[in-house]
Amino acid sequence: MPEAAALLDAPHARTEQEMLEQGRSLLAMGCGAVLMKGGHLDDEQSPDWLFTREGEQRFTAARIMTQNTHGTGCTLSAALAALRPRHTNWADTVQEAKSWLSSALAQADTLEVGHGIGPVHHFHAWW
């Protein structure tokens, strides 16, 4: 959400309602689709919102308690880019990418690499 705030020259969204307003504003600027991530909100669930010309859709996932969250935004965007050709719409693409990322976060603590905030487990399905 800091990225959305920077693009809009607005304060950082601190609530889900502010996320909605910023997502709609970005879509109105001419974007084909906007995904607002709610991982930085202080809720039990991590709500994300997809905005397209066809409508808005809310995605939720249980918040996974791990300090290994380094690169989650980049990881999600890479997953979206990789999965987009498999689906005919953004909603299915986002759902699959979020499901994969949730599993990668859930397995992140098994990596035991580095010090401090570590990465998600990108290869959790294989090792």
TrEMBL record:
InterPro entries found in the cross-reference section: PM/HMP-P_kinase-1, Ribokinase-like
Span of domain Pyridoxamine kinase/Phosphomethylpyrimidine kinase: 1-121
Keyword Disulfide bond assigned: no
Keywords of this entry: Kinase, Transferase
Protein origin, superkingdom: Bacteria
E.C. no: 2.7.1.49, 2.7.4.7
Classification via Gene3D superfamilies: 3.40.1190.20
An example Gene Ontology biological process: thiamine diphosphate biosynthetic process
Pfam families: Phos_pyr_kin
Listed GO CC annotations: cytosol
Residues making up the signal peptide according to the UniProt record: none
Gene Ontology terms, MF aspect: hydroxymethylpyrimidine kinase activity; phosphomethylpyrimidine kinase activity
Class in the EC hierarchy, top level: transferase
Name recorded for this polypeptide: Phosphomethylpyrimidine kinase
